[in-house]
Design goal:
alpha/beta, about 350 residues, eight-stranded parallel barrel, binds beta-D-mannopyranose, two-stranded antiparallel sheet
Length: about 350
Amino acid sequence: MIQSIKISILSGACCLAAATCVAAGPEAEALRHRLESVVKSGGVMFGQHDATVYGHDWAWQPGRCDVRELCGDYPAILSFDLGRLETGSEVNLDSVPFEMIRNEIKRHHRSGGICTISWHPDNPANGGSTWTPGPGVLDTIVSDREVRRKLESWNDMTADFIVSLRDDQGEPIPVIFRPWHEHTGSWFWWGRDCGSADSYRQLWSMTREAFDKKGVDNVLWSYSPDKVMTAEEYFERYPGDDMVDILGADIYTFDNYGGFPRFNEFANAELAIACDYAAKTGKIAALTETGYEGLTTPGWYDQVLLPAISAFPVAYVCVWRNAHNKPGHYYAPWRGHSDEDSFMQFYNSDQTLFLNDIKQIK
Ligand code: BMA
């Protein structure tokens, strides 16, 4: 029943007016078109980070996925991270082998799904991790030649990985790339207190230049500030319309930061800003990262997340990971979890789209 309602919504899908293209090749253009069709349909795709490589109590078991074991379908969007690729490591910062990430992206693409990639590189200025912010760290990419060179080589490595994503016919697989996110906070070395707005924009330009030089055209670029209440904050460091395809927002629910009501305030404010601007510029808006760690108060999925996204024309929402080796660090329930009903109501909504729902959306 639900499925047939979803299908009838989707059959009315069509694309919006063509948007300005950011160095996108035909595959990335097709992905853009698909995201526009989703928005036009009134549906919102569900995604999760690392959803098919590990779950709350398992890891590296092909085909498994907590979400699928609960609701019967895979997320429409899979998210992966390239942090530590720049060090030459074979596994990322959460121990996921890069080869596995490549294969999962290929497999999900073949199944009709969409992938998004984030990148949490180490700190090129001091050798620390991605979470080593400090005053001026971001500015050193402009002022210090050695740091700049290091970052250039890291950008090259990431570009090489992304351009190497190919399907069985050797055609490029389009992905959403979400670098330098949550820069309105200061927990990453590219955050607000780590340098000037100009340095942040330079960071984007450098990455973009490296990708262009390598001929990477299978990417849609997502700009994803952390929670903000005003357009001034949202756009303070915006790298420019020619750099950005997706107006994103990364907003979490925290019990010690206003809980559900505060999340609603931020979601209402920031998604309105992103959607308004997306509508004006022919771009796409999305809730690019969200979640409520441990789902400790029941009802988050149906009473908080669903109303938040229902109010806005966002193409997708992506929750963070179910860590297999970090107790309590999970963002989606699994079969047998005490709050599984809330997720099932979210899944059963006519609006939410999972992998099977989007296969027919072109
Ligand atoms: C954070 C946490 C960390 C993880 C990092 C990068 O939000 O999930 O455990 O290492 O993301 O994926």
